[in-house]
Amino acid sequence: MKNDNQQLEEIITIESGSLSLREISHITSTPERLQFYEKKYPDILYSTLLMSLTHESYTEAQAKRLWSGIRQHMDKLNNILQRDVGLSVATLDYLTNCSEHLSAPKIIEQDKSDFVSRAATIDELTGLYIRDVFDVMIKTSIGNAIHNNTPLCLLMIDIDDFKQVNDNYGHMTGDKVLAELGACLKQSIRESDMAIRYGGEELSVIMPETKEKNASKVGERIRKQVEQLEFDGFSVTVSIGLGSLNKVCRTPETLISAADEALYEAKHNGKNQLIISQCAIREN
Ligand SMILES: Nc1nc2c(ncn2[C@@H]2O[C@H](COP(=O)(O)OP(=O)(O)OP(=O)(O)O)[C@@H](O)[C@H]2O)c(=O)[nH]1
């Protein structure tokens, strides 16, 4: 009887020009297997791998060089983070931040859902993107917004008194709350927005091409929807900080800290509210 790998090997058709992430993982899983495919498809292997991951065309020679850079970058990231970041995140980060081959990060915006769709990029409990993806996407989004002179907003969302939920109803119920909030967030945002589990009970939404006024409406909608969710005999609320790209907040660090400070203020003012960061003179 054939195992999964043998079956996959038989159906992989590089000539089709597009490979799934499962097929890419299979082809590149060991040096021996990669060599096998190199021999079988000497002129199209690497360009097809890159095309499938980025939707961009490269010559075979260019693609082979890029592939080697991506692999090294992935090893480096795995080492730093002490976990497998996955090929998609490594490729995304390498092409946007390390390699000059890709001049247009637009591909990440347009194809981000294909590009980062692998399980390694999604938090199992909430169904939202993991923090590593946030770290890459916030840089890319800020770069795009500055380059295209478009607005960009960031929401930082924290569950109020979540410790009490865990203490009163148990950790498993707490997990259920997080899962529901993840679903609620995904339903409330646009396709071009990105919802992330930023930390334990802190969630975040990156909102490209969104003015502060509109981001604030979305944040308010999220806050109200959360308030209405019913759990077993209790409900929860969230506090939200909103930061937007402006003359002062133009880096991931400053934008995150603007949203964080606003979140802190929302907590301080009594929770269950959205506060807009007062960081600098806003342009939008
Ligand atoms: N169930 C569950 N709890 C989590 C998870 N991650 C973080 N937490 C809990 O979130 C709680 C956060 O507590 P605090 O930082 O004290 O904040 P808080 O009780 O929400 O209070 P405020 O932020 O001031 O409203 C802690 O009890 C953590 O254990 C998780 O994955 N599952």
Keywords summarizing the entry:
12 helices; binds guanosine-5'-triphosphate; 284 residues; Alpha-Beta Plaits; 2 domains; alpha+beta
What does this structure look like?
It comes from Oceanospirillum sediminis. Its EC number is 2.7.7.65. With 284 residues, the chain is an alpha+beta fold. The chain folds into 2 domains: 4-120, no CATH class; 131-276, Alpha-Beta Plaits (2-Layer Sandwich). Helices cover 56% and strands 10% of the residues. Strands 2-3-1-4-5 form a 5-stranded mixed sheet, sandwiched between helices. The chain starts with a helix and ends in an 8-residue tail after the last strand. 36% of the residues are buried. Mean pLDDT is 85; it is low at 103-119. The site of guanosine-5'-triphosphate has 15 residues, from strand 1, helix 9 and helix 10.
Uncertain runs: 103-119
Q: Write down the domain tally.
A: 2
- Full CATH superfamily name of the largest domain: Reverse transcriptase/Diguanylate cyclase domain
Strand order of the largest sheet: 2-3-1-4-5
> What letter string, H or E per element, gives the SSE order?
HHHHHHHHEHHEEHEHE
Helix content: 55-70%
How many strand elements?
5
Strand pairing plus helix content: what structural class?
alpha+beta
Named CATH architecture of the largest domain = 2-Layer Sandwich
SS field, number of helical segments: 12
Distance between the termini: 63 Å
Any idea of the CATH class of the largest domain? Alpha Beta
Shape category: globular
The main pleated sheet reads as: 5 strands, mixed
CATH topology grouping of the largest domain: Alpha-Beta Plaits
Ions, cofactors and other bound molecules: guanosine-5'-triphosphate
The Cα radius of gyration reads 21 Å
| Average pLDDT, all residues | 85
How much strand content do the residues show? 5-15%
Cofactor: Mg(2+)
Pfam families: GGDEF
GO molecular function: diguanylate cyclase activity
Protein name: diguanylate cyclase
